[in-house]
Amino acid sequence: MKVGVLALQGDVREHVSSLIACGVDPISVRRIEELRSVEALVIPGGESTTIAQLAEHYELLQPIRARIREGMPVYGSCAGMILLADRVLDAIEGQKTFGGLDITVRRNAFGRQVDSFESDIDFNDGGKEKVHAVFIRAPWVEEIGKDISVLATVTSPDGQSHPVAVRGGNLLATSFHPELTGDHRIHHYFIEEVARPALVRGRDR
Ligand code: GLN
Predict the structure, then answer these.
(1) Catalytic annotation on 162?
(2) How far is residue 78's CA from residue 48's CA, in Å, rounded to a whole number?
């Protein structure tokens, strides 16, 4: 499977390592030809405003939107989640996203309580072990559309539960950074449960 990591800004190398650990040989995507050559894409954590601006500058914004509409499997972590969201709260003025996931995310949502924190959370992939989740100025999901499944939640100090991992069709997003922990379960889930079945379905069409 040809998997790309969007390499405009953010923790690209860590995602590349996680994907290699899952048995794929990823390439960095900075140019349109590289985007065309991949079947699935990972959008790293970093700064969603910067990644969107660079994507526009490198003329990747519209092409990535088009590939998402055509069904390309994409996984976004943290800033990547924001970039996959259809709606963003606490965005900067004019902030653009690739969109495709029918969710509303709030940027820097945990920021008012704690900037960064770690937590062991349940990830609803059938596995029993908890996932060690690292949140760095992370968003949470404030609203989900009807075809979105929630795969993990975190409870904020006021007792409210917030989705931090969601899936809608071929798109997967997490507020946290599995690429930083050496636990490759989320990447494995993306490759084996989201991307591979989607690509097989696409080939059978
Ligand atoms: N707060 C960042 C943003 O809005 C995301 C942080 C991260 O990816 N670690 O893009």
Answers:
(1) no
(2) 8
| Helix axes 61-69 and 48-57, enclosed angle (nearest 10) | 100
Question: How many residues are present in the chain?
Answer: 205
Whole-structure pTM over 0.90, yes or no?
Answer: yes
* Residue 26 CB neighbours (<10 A): 24
Which of 14, 82, 84, 106 has most ligand 1 atoms within 8 Å of its beta carbon, as the pocket-test mutant? 82
Dist. CA 79 → ligand 1 center (Å): 4
Interval 130-161: pLDDT, tens:
999 999 999 999 999 999 999 999 998 788 99
- At 84 the pLDDT is 98
177 is catalytic: yes
Residue type present at position 174 = T
C-alpha 116 chain-centroid distance: 18
**Cα–Cα distances in Å, from 177 out to 31, 35, 117, 133, 151?**
25, 23, 11, 7, 15
pLDDT at 204 over 80: no
| Calpha distance 9→27 (Å, rounded) | 15
pLDDT tier for residue 198 given thresholds of 50, 70 and 90 = very high
What's the CATH fold of domain 3-204?
Rossmann fold (3.40.50)
What is the position in ligand 1's atom list of the atom closest to the CA of 107?
A: 4
Q: How far is CA 33 from CA 30, 36, 83, 186, 197, in A?
A: 9, 5, 21, 27, 24
